[in-house]
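Design request, tokens follow.
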């Protein structure tokens, strides 16, 4: 289902990034692979994605236009394998996470079938709120 947001943004200025995010958001397969997002500190977060059965070389993690994109492409299965039951999902996937401004990926670790992606908000000093001293003007001398 495609939605045209053009009428909504015709009379707005400066919201082009929001329009691009809404138009580029692609529907994802719900639930695969499952993931958690947790807050680990004041400005720190962790995304944990269940990628059981994937090797590091079968996973790709990229940051593009404030989107964190995780793709998984499993290696070709052995054609001689005969499954009596094949219940472990090993299908290709793409999972996107839209990140807020100034979010950086600190590192990503794969262990025990889980991919841990640690993120931190790194606001530049120039953009941080700062207090401005308010001075009083000297009183005029009345003669």
């Amino acid at each position: 289902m495609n939605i045209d947001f053009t009428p909504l943004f015709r009379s707005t200025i400066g919201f082009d990034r929001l329009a691009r995010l809404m138009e580029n958001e692609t529907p994802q397969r719900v639930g695969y692979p499952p993931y958690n997002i947790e807050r680990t500190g004041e400005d720190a977060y962790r995304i944990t994605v269940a990628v059981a059965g994937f090797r590091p070389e079968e996973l790709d993690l990229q940051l593009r236009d404030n989107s964190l994109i995780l793709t998984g492409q499993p290696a070709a299965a052995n054609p001689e394998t005969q499954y009596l039951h094949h219940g472990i999902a090993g299908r290709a996937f793409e999972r996107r996470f839209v990140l807020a401004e100034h979010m950086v990926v600190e590192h990503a670790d794969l262990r025990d079938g889980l991919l841990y992606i640690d993120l931190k908000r790194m606001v530049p000093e120039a953009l941080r709120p700062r207090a401005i001293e308010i001075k009083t003007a000297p009183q005029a001398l009345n003669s």
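Comment from the thread starter after seeing the answer: thanks! The two ends are 79 Å apart (CA to CA).
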